Amino acid sequence: MLSKIPVDIKSVSEEDIDKEIIRAAIVAEIDAINLYEQMANLTKNTYVKDVLMDVAKEEKTHIGEFQALLLQFDPQYKKEVEAGARDAEEVLSK
């Protein structure tokens, strides 16, 4: 993604705008995690690696914050996340 909102915000209805913004924020955080972890795996400098991994960890916290918001703003999303969790639990219990 790298600093570009993946949706044309102007074409999104007013009732959906916050959900789209939150989704874009989640995508940005995932991109950041991937970037920081990839860079951490490239460096041989322990200090640089530790800082990059710490920052990646913080981005994961941000995803949790945005996820909590999205679960409040999008009831269908909440329902599907819960269904997916049940499906995953079923697979893992086999």
TrEMBL record:
Cellular component, GO annotation: encapsulin nanocompartment
UniProt keyword Secreted, yes or no: no
Top-rank taxon: Archaea
Signal peptide: none
Keywords for the protein's UniProt record, in alphabetical order: Encapsulin nanocompartment
Pfam families: Rubrerythrin (PF02915)
InterPro entries reported for this sequence: Encapsulin_nc (IPR051429), Ferritin-like_SF (IPR009078), Rr_diiron-bd_dom (IPR003251)
Domain Rubrerythrin diiron-binding per the UniProt entry, residue ranges: 20-83
Location in the cell: Encapsulin nanocompartment
GO molecular function: metal ion binding; oxidoreductase activity
PANTHER family tied to this protein: PEPTIDASE U56 FAMILY, TYPE 1 ENCAPSULIN SHELL PROTEIN
Protein name: Rubrerythrin
Species of provenance: Methanosarcina thermophila
